[in-house]
């Protein structure tokens, strides 16, 4: 077995899985198969008002009827979400799309295919979280750059110096205080806004 596959299988063992499905033959078959895979599984029906915080994967039956019971949905910081459907009518498909599910299991539920659905769903969720993390980091970087540029302009107007010198002043302060340039810039911007609001700072003087 390749190392990547081995790590994947080890990750599944002990996964905390919640099955939100009526306790019938199909629900029991799903729970039994997940246990054979090595997951720590529990079943729950009717659907809870909130998904417990101690689960990392949810298999949730999407009912055809429009009811307020369908509360689970996939989120960046939530568990992997696998929808279970038995119809493909417009109502079910809309609820499926609204759930942002990472995977789908069709009824009638059979043991074959559960492992593949679980692996693909967890992989999709992991990729989405990594992508969201990169996007958030990029947004933070862009904001930091905008703040530094704004602080540079404030110093240029206030001290009558060039942009290069203003940038160097911010860099020196960051080094001396062991802070990031973005933190220093935020302080400068905050001070300018407070003093400007009090009429004590005017970059045009």
Can you give keywords for this protein?
Rossmann fold, 205 residues, five-stranded parallel sheet, Arc Repressor Mutant, subunit A, alpha/beta, 6 helices, 2 domains, elongated
Q: What would your notes on this structure say?
A:
By secondary structure, the chain is an alpha/beta fold. It has two domains: 3-112, 3-Layer(aba) Sandwich (Rossmann fold); 135-197, Orthogonal Bundle (Arc Repressor Mutant, subunit A). 54% of the residues lie in helices and 12% in strands. The chain contains six helices and five strands; from the N terminus they run H-E-H-E-E-E-H-E-H-H-H. Helix 3 links the parallel strand 4 (80-85) and strand 5. Helix 4 crosses helix 5. The longest helix has 46 residues, at 114-159. The chain starts with a helix and ends in an 8-residue tail after the last helix.
What is the H level of CATH, i.e. the homologous superfamily of the largest domain?
Response regulator
Q: Do you know the CATH topology of the largest domain? A: Rossmann fold
Count, helices: 6
Main β-sheet description = 5 strands, parallel
- How many angstroms does the end-to-end distance come to? 73 Å
| Low-confidence residue ranges | none
What oligomeric state do the depicted chains represent? single chain
- SSE string, helices as H and strands as E: HEHEEEHEHHH
Overall domain count: 2
Instruction: Write the CATH architecture name of the largest domain.
Output: 3-Layer(aba) Sandwich
Strand order of the largest sheet: 2-1-3-4-5
Strand content: 5-15%
Shape: elongated
Radius of gyration: 26 Å
* Secondary structure tally: strands: 5
CATH class of the largest domain: Alpha Beta
Q: What's the average pLDDT? A: 82
Class from helix and strand fractions: alpha/beta
Helical content, roughly? 40-55%
């Amino acid at each position: 077995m390749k190392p990547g596959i081995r790590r994947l299988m080890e990750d599944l063992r002990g996964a905390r899985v919640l099955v939100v499905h009526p306790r019938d033959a199909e629900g029991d078959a799903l729970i039994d198969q997940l246990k054979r895979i090595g997951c720590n599984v529990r079943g729950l029906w009717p659907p809870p008002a909130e998904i417990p915080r101690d689960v990392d994967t949810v298999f949730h039956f999407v009912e055809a009827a429009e009811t307020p019971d369908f509360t689970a949905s996939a989120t960046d910081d939530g568990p992997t979400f696998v929808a279970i459907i038995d119809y493909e009518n417009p109502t079910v498909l809309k609820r499926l799309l609204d759930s942002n599910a990472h995977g789908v299991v069709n009824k009638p539920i059979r043991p074959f295919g559960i492992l593949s659905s679980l692996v693909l769903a967890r992989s999709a969720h992991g990729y989405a979280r990594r992508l969201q993390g990169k996007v958030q980091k990029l947004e933070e970087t862009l904001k930091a750059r905008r703040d530094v540029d704004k602080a540079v302009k404030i110093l240029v107007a206030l001290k009558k110096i060039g942009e290069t010198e203003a940038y160097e002043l911010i860099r020196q302060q960051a080094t001396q205080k062991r802070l990031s340039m973005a933190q220093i810039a935020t302080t400068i911007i905050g001070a300018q806004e407070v003093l400007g609001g009090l009429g004590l700072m005017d970059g045009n003087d």
